[in-house]
Amino acid sequence: MHSSKGGWRLVTRESLKTRGANVGVLVGGGPAPGINGVIGAVTLEARTRAHKVIGIYEGFQWLMRGDTTHTKELLKDEVSRIHFQGGSILNTSRANPTKRAEDIQQVVATLDRLGIGSLVTIGGDDTMYAASHVAKHAGGRIRVCHVPKTIDNDLPLPGDIPTFGFETARQVGSALVQNLMEDSRTTGRWYFVVVMGRSAGHLALGIGKSTGASLTIIPEEFTSAVHLQTVCDILEGAILKRTALWNRSDGVAVIAEGLLERVAPEELQQIEGVRIAHDSYGHLRLAELDLAYVLKTLVEHRFANRGSFMSVVHKNIGYELRSAAPIAFDCDYVRTLGYGAVEFLLNPGAESANLGGALVCLIDGKLEYFDFDALQDPHTGKTRVRTVDITKPTYKVAREYMIRLEREDFGDDDKLRLLAQAASSKKKLCSSDEFKSRFQYLTTELRGSL
Known about the structure:
alpha/beta; Rossmann fold
């Protein structure tokens, strides 16, 4: 679990005295419920151990410029109750110090001037990647501990351990979708709800499964590139099935925004009004591509071409979740992680003393530390991403309860006839063979199909 790869020098309690005495803490990436709880726990524990704590505003942004003024000494009285609050008292940013060698060198030099010998970084995969570079370039002068944070739940923690913020985001998101489900039933229309999640479908699946939404679509189902036509076929098929077999015109589809990451850029550029942009880490800015609206428009056009009226309401859920007040699970969880970060930095055990930087996590009730190198993809050098394992019960059970076209639908003549009837237009009757030709591929080309 632990390794000494990366050339870390041995850090003993004696060598701790040669580093800066201050503990720094910063936040990178998007907000997530529980950030303030980590800041509070780190501050309270470090000050109990007689170390000054320096809060660094807006992630690496000002450190990259050699600016030491966007900092604040954190005191016990100021942080003792912030764990109930959403957001981040230190704000956050996506500034990337790894793009240029001079930027990471400036970060290390600025931390040195602040007297920071121990640094806690709070963030997702990108912030952890930057944290690993700080540890390497500091040459042992700065010990770094990363606290994994993301509502996407896509950091490579062992087993099914969630990243902090995920459970609160799922809880808040589920409440919102429950309201939409009732509105859908009351008004007799469909909702397409796109849920944040850049590279993995954990949050979309967690919300869809817990609410019993009509269906959920995540990128892990696709064996290769995602095509918008295929996504629309899944949605259209579900709508037709609900109409044909249950005589219902309502439903809620939960869709992971990460589908867009796997759509070819040339396909996206064919959509009117779409502008492709990337953030400082090279990721597609998904929030600027309104996937919910695109899918609503395409599916409504399909029904309009049949002469049928179809009402779809599009909704994006993500920003509403990121700065929510954390639920008890995350309040509890982040206090342990914050304490664990300080323990790693100021009182390293035998197993972690030779690590200049590591990620802290809680496994079977015990604090464990993972070497940054062990968490990186050997092919890209970036942090590995944890995706939904669709072979496990978490996905398989959710899939059982979805309304989607299945293999059995195409082997049952009565069902197939009703489905074809629902797909018929006022001018042309759709035959069973035509319906099968149009939609049956969905049961063979997608992973997890039943």
